[in-house]
From TrEMBL:
Keywords: Acyltransferase, Fatty acid biosynthesis, Fatty acid metabolism, Lipid biosynthesis, Lipid metabolism, Transferase. This is 3-oxoacyl-[acyl-carrier-protein] synthase 2. The keyword Lipid metabolism applies. It comes from Lihuaxuella thermophila. Pfam families: ketoacyl-synt, Ketoacyl-synt_C. One of its GO terms (molecular function) is 3-oxoacyl-[acyl-carrier-protein] synthase activity. It catalyses: a fatty acyl-[ACP] + malonyl-[ACP] + H(+) = a 3-oxoacyl-[ACP] + holo-[ACP] + CO2; (9Z)-hexadecenoyl-[ACP] + malonyl-[ACP] + H(+) = 3-oxo-(11Z)-octadecenoyl-[ACP] + holo-[ACP] + CO2. The active site is at C163. Belongs to the thiolase-like superfamily. Beta-ketoacyl-ACP synthases family. Pathway: Lipid metabolism; fatty acid biosynthesis. GO terms for cellular component: cytosol.
Length: 415
């Protein structure tokens, strides 16, 4: 018999708020966090806009000496994890540290550190490269540093699967709890790549939106006919998940129940989804089956919804393939219309939003959906949040390399 798993804490660093309450309020109000790039001079780049985290002070969560030894993505992870633990009322003094684990991924890791230290190497020589360069850069360090900071000695790992990273990390942590290898898992994703190298790379691919450089809040428009690419974001999204027995014993406040996890591979192309969204459809169906649900039990899908021409078309086709007639009866929306694409952190932040959708029974909108694409003809909750019954929901993440990941949650009901 497998353990039931519940979500008891949420932590967010995002372009629309650096705590889960501010993030949620802005999300359901349809506020965009996208604006001109300020982290570097983007005047020579085709894309000049991003969804930056604003007013983040790492010294609220760690001392200055510690912060200097961390890349920005790790600082985000620690901040969001500490917030999630506080929200969950999780006191490590009362926990067996060997039964508390951490599973936080990053799609790219410490690219900012890599850029900075490469300049140092070229300009000042190898002896001036920081001894902390490698442990600041490597993508597993979000999990490592969080475990060190909170004293969690249980299962510790990190997924690196591009834009599916956060969802893979949460799904893998869910399975650790289900099989009884831990009582508590702190899981999600963190990313901080609004940097010259990342912008140059994504620009060379033609992946970023350029049409709306002078109307930044309009640039991310999933499922809209005029979409022309994604907008890069940054941040972290973290869940505290526990076995139900552990949560009940300590009197935790339960937000939602995690019930299913699916992951598949397209085995098709480096960056393009497989034709007709076949891989994504299988991922959703696996999550539904793992949850012991039927497709018609799902009321809402938090879509990957990147605002790129191919993703939105193929994800729509995947939903139709998986859900048949029910595809037209469920609600679909994309948080990325407001927060941009947080890459490896996207699945973590969107999992927070999905849990709150179930808790609050409010579906966040897809903003900027002004000109419907005939090939994207589902109910995308356009432009305004919607109150409605949401019994069970999916959250999709689809990554370069053909990685597909889906988690399933439902409203918690007493055992």
């Amino acid at each position: 018999m497998t353990n039931r798993v519940v979500i008891t804490g949420l932590g967010v660093i995002s372009p629309i708020g650096n705590d889960h309450t501010t993030f949620w309020n802005n999300l359901i109000e349809g506020k965009s966090g996208i604006g001109p790039v300020t982290r570097f001079d983007a005047s020579d780049y085709p894309a000049k806009i991003a969804a930056e985290v604003k007013d983040f002070d790492p010294l609220l969560y760690m001392d200055k000496k510690e912060a200097r030894k961390m890349d920005r993505f790790t600082q985000f992870a620690i901040a969001a994890s500490k917030m999630a633990m506080e929200h969950a009322g999780l006191d490590m003094e009362k926990e067996d540290p060997r039964r508390v684990g951490v599973y936080i991924g990053s799609g790219i890791g410490g690219l900012g550190t890599l850029e900075e230290q490469h300049k140092t190497l070229i300009q000042r020589g190898p002896k001036r490269v920081s001894p902390f360069f490698i442990p600041m850069m490597i993508a597993n360090m979000a999990s490592g540093q969080v475990s060190i900071h909170i004293g969690a000695q249980g299962p510790n790992s990190s997924a690196v699967s591009a834009c599916a990273t956060g969802t893979h990390s949460i799904g893998d942590a869910f399975k650790i709890l289900q099989r009884g290898d831990a009582d508590v898992m702190i899981a999600g994703g963190a990313e901080a790549t609004i940097l010259p190298m990342a912008f140059a790379g994504f620009s060379s691919m033609g992946a970023l939106s350029t049409k709306f450089n002078y109307q930044p809040e309009k640039a991310s428009r999933p499922f809209d006919l005029d979409r022309d690419g994604f907008v890069m974001g940054e941040g972290a999204g973290i869940l505290v998940m526990e076995t139900l027995d552990h949560a009940l014993k300590r009197g935790a406040n339960i937000i939602a129940e995690m019930v299913g996890y699916g992951m598949t591979a397209d085995a098709y192309h480096l960056t393009s989804p497989s034709p007709d969204g076949e891989g994504a459809a299988r991922s959703m169906l696996r999550a539904i089956e793992d949850a012991g649900l039927k497709p018609e039990d799902i009321d809402y899908i938090n879509a990957h919804g990147t605002s790129t021409p191919l993703n939105d078309k193929f994800e729509t086709m995947a939903i139709k393939s998986a859900f048949k007639d029910h595809a037209y009866k469920l609600a679909v929306s994309s948080n990325k219309s407001m927060i941009g694409h947080l890459l490896g952190a996207a699945g973590g932040v969107e999992a927070v939003a999905t849990a709150l959708t179930l808790k609050e029974q409010i579906i966040p909108p897809t903003i900027n959906l002004e000109t419907p694409d005939p090939e994207c003809d589902l109910d995308y909750v356009p432009n305004e949040a919607r109150k409605g019954r949401v019994r069970a929901a999916l959250s999709n993440s689809l990554g370069f390399g053909g990685h597909n990941a889906t988690i399933a949650m439902k409203v918690y009901e007493d055992a």
